[in-house]
Amino acid sequence: MTQPALAHATEFGRMYGRSLNDTPSVPSITTVIGMQAMDLSGWAGYMAASKLAAHPGLVEAAGRSEKLRPLVREAANAAENYRNEAAARGDRVHFYAEQVALRALDREHEVERAQAELAEHQEQRFAQAFDAWWQEYRVQPLAPEVTIWNQSVGYAGTLDLVAEISGRLCLIDYKTKGTDRNGELKAVDPKVVMQLVAGMKAEESLLDARAGQWEAWKYGQEPLLLAVAIGETGVRPMRANPSVLPQQWYKFCALHRLWERNTAAAQAGEPLLPLAPPRPTP
Description:
It is a single chain. This protein is an alpha+beta fold. It is 41% helix and 22% strand. A hairpin with a 2-residue loop joins β5 (155-165) and β6 (168-176). The mean pLDDT is 89.
């Protein structure tokens, strides 16, 4: 996936500025959604235990603390390493999908480089599955990797694709997914609906990052919101249920207020100050 030019990593999460020379001023959509608490401790523990149990050096290290400790440290990082690898794979698949859209629009593209990067990591089947979906659904791209801005609430983000499918305007977010033991793609996280509805509620879209030039958002009139799961064994498009969109929007706005309060609290100063003992009584 192309790195959005206006996105910056900050101590308050990913944030966007209005131009390349502008200070980041609003959080990204994913930063806002990330304010929703998630307990991944069980999954992280399972990943660590699985990594340790499958390590080829475990038998030799058993009962020898000097050999076991390095294995434990390695296993403790299993969840983080898995997330990093999944994120890198997702970037490669997103980049390929973006290049396919650019090619369809007769714009400059790097489809061959994207294919080569997937092949280097033995991930060609993701591209094959994506191509089959693209042709079957007869996707007509309008704008890939669109950076959007909402000034009223105060956030920005980047949509993977705006397209037409069967004459219907669609806002699309790609999710790279693994395959379960039954050969089916793993389920898409329902939080993607918040992400899509926040994109739909955009007020502006970026024209020129260097000049900070924006135009009025023209794709927010009742589009179909699609989460497209891309895996090695196929593609599963899921549409957002229109009846839940108002509640998902209200929830997103509430999480945005929480981000604002957390940011303000972090900038207010040190929460705890030292206290000196009382002066001795004369």
